[in-house]
Specification:
Residues 72-336 form the Translation elongation factor EFTs/EF1B dimerisation domain. InterPro entries: EF-Ts_dimer_sf (IPR036402), Transl_elong_EFTs/EF1B (IPR001816), Transl_elong_EFTs/EF1B_dimer (IPR014039), Transl_elong_Ts_CS (IPR018101), UBA-like_sf (IPR009060). Residues 81-84 are annotated as: Involved in Mg(2+) ion dislocation from EF-Tu. The chain has 354 residues and is α+β, with helices and mostly antiparallel strands. It has 3 domains: 5-50, Ubiquitin-associated (UBA) domain (Helicase, Ruva Protein, domain 3, Orthogonal Bundle), CATH 1.10.8; 58-194, Tetrahydropterin Synthase, Chain A; 201-212 and 225-294, no CATH class. The chain has helices at 5-15, 19-28, 33-42, 82-85, 88-104, 109-114, 122-133, 174-179, 181-194, 206-230, 248-264, 272-286, 289-294, 309-320, 345-353; strands at residues 58-65, 71-79, 116-117, 120-121, 138-146, 151-157, 163-171, 300-301, 304-308, 324-333. Helix 1 packs across helix 2 and helix 11 (248-264) crosses helix 12. The two termini are 40 Å apart.
Length: 354
């Protein structure tokens, strides 16, 4: 297959790899763009694929948490310009729409459009707001989560109004749920900053984990080449990429290897229980770097970066004398996932409305 300059340009823009590396990757994969991206990443030459022409959409995210912390709603409404996103009428529209969605138990855009707000159908209400504000507006998405018995929800909206998070936890008692409110709020703040994609490694597809692990090793090997040149300490290439790779058998084998090492160092057995937990934690941390990048529970907590979020939750549960399990996580960032080939966002919004 003939590799065009446009194909090379597109691959370069989506991965950040060099022009010649992109051309070679396309030749090796017979012009298959997705396979070329994977090949570059395995060689440590490309980043995770960016979508060409990411849409720099404007608008606001809104988060509303019920006073009893049993329900929370998050929404995103898009505007054409950042100027309108700062308009008080638009700010009020976003907040009131989110409260309306929550109070009426609305679960779809169609249901929202046919619902009644201020005596009129919502789609008519939105059209009147568009006429008043002077820009096309669209309710892009929303989600409501509820806490079941002994559950708690909380949320966080970043000060710029562009990033919001809601999280729900299931607990063993209402007492534990009440005590966990602040922790859940802090976890929302963590997720706003660290952008985990899912709660746990258990939600990641095994094939996806394998692909990411190959890319991770390629990234480290490529960086090590540069570190050798600069005389810097090298990355330790991990044996595994995710907790999904580390079975109980593998962990037991590693613990025995660590014990053997302590014997060789003539460390008294009576102090092993003080040394081993830290060494096991280090082994897991070194070999779960995909989880640290992509999962809420696997990330190191921004407020105490020596502990993972999972460890922080376990510690808080022990303090409260109960159990806390994160069961739902939703993060919205204005414009994420929207793509376009042109800069005409007005047309994009109009198409969604039409």
């Amino acid at each position: 297959m003939e590799i065009s300059a446009q194909m090379v340009k597109e691959l370069r823009e989506s991965t950040g790899a060099g022009m010649m590396d992109c051309k070679k990757a396309l030749v090796e994969t017979d012009g298959d763009m997705d396979k070329a991206v994977d090949l570059l990443r395995e060689k440590g030459l490309g980043k995770a694929a960016k979508k060409a022409d990411r849409l720099a959409s404007e608008g606001l995210v809104s988060v509303e948490v019920g006073a009893d912390h049993k329900i929370a709603t998050i929404s995103e409404i898009n505007s054409e310009t950042d100027f309108v996103a700062k308009n008080q009428n638009f700010i009020n529209l976003v907040k009131n729409t989110t409260l309306h969605i929550q109070s009426k138990g609305i679960s779809s855009i169609d249901e929202l459009n046919s619902s009644i707000i201020d005596g009129v159908k919502f789609d008519e209400h939105l059209k009147s707001q568009i006429a008043t504000i002077g820009e096309n507006l669209v309710v892009r998405r929303f989600e409501t989560i509820k806490a079941g018995a002994n559950g708690v929800v909380n949320g966080y909206l970043h000060s710029n109004g562009r990033v919001g998070v809601i999280i729900a936890a299931a607990c063993d008692s209402e007492r534990t749920a009440e005590g966990a409110k602040d922790l859940i709020k802090n976890l929302c703040m963590h997720a706003a900053a660290m952008k985990p994609q899912v709660i746990s490694y258990k939600e990641l597809d095994p094939d996806f984990i394998e692909k990411e692990f190959l890319a991770l090793k390629g990234e480290f090997e490529k960086e090590n080449e540069e570190f050798v040149r600069l005389g810097k300490p090298l990355h330790k290439i991990p044996q595994f990429g995710s907790r999904a790779h580390i079975s109980d058998e593998i962990l037991a084998k590693e613990i025995e290897a660590l014990k053997d090492e302590l014997r060789k160092q003539n460390k008294p057995e009576k102090i092993w229980d003080k040394i081993l937990p830290g060494q096991i934690d280090r082994f897991i941390a070194d070999n779960t770097q995909i989880d640290q990048r992509l999962t809420l529970l696997g990330q190191f907590y921004v407020m105490d970066d020596k502990k993972t979020v999972e460890q922080v939750i376990d510690e808080e549960a022990k303090k409260l004398g109960g159990k806390i399990e994160i069961v739902k996580y939703v993060r919205f960032e204005v414009g994420e996932g929207l793509e376009k080939k042109s800069e005409d966002f007005a047309a994009e919004v109009a198409a969604q409305i039409g």
